[in-house]
Amino acid sequence: MMDGDMAISVETLIPAPDIRERFERNVKAPPDVVMKVAYDFDMQSIWLIRVIINARKFILGGTHEERRAMGLVEETRKIGWGTLVEEPGRLLICGAVCQPWHGDVKFTPVPLEDIGAYNEPDQVKIVWSLEAEEISPNVTRFSHEVRAVSTDAAAKRKFMRYWRWARFGIIAIRLLLLPAIEREAERKWSANT
What we know:
Elements (H helix, E strand, L loop, with lengths): L1 E2 L2 E2 L2 H4 L5 E9 L3 H10 L6 H14 L11 H7 L3 E6 L3 E8 L13 H4 L8 E13 L2 E12 L2 H39 L2
Antiparallel strand pairs: 1-2, 3-7, 4-5, 5-6, 6-7
């Protein structure tokens, strides 16, 4: 997707983040297969991810909620993440504003045309992406990137205090999730070839 002559990416949406995390895997499957698996993968089907999510809620005094099994993209949209860019089989960029230091985080989507200038006080703008790029026949570089920036100094203090400890769980989720998506995509691709 283009904005004038500039491709929209997490980097163009948040060029100077407070935090940036990027993870990549080379997957032996075509991009459309990898993205379909990523969209449909129930991340909480991994017991350790469930433990991390529930521990965070417990530490911050959040409300425990029963959930049904659902794909990654369905779940993130259900809790409030907005779709900023979507190129089927290749790219998904989602974003929202929130106060992540609360136990029951409320994600509020912001339209693509407004997210760059969004500056309501005491918020954190977060964008994340799933990208699938074919690097050789039936081999995909699958990337996930997250960028976040606080809207003011008070939010930045709260966010960085939260991030100092929460990042360990957040990064662990990515380190568990991406290999699981890789395995499932490769399994599906090999079963169909």
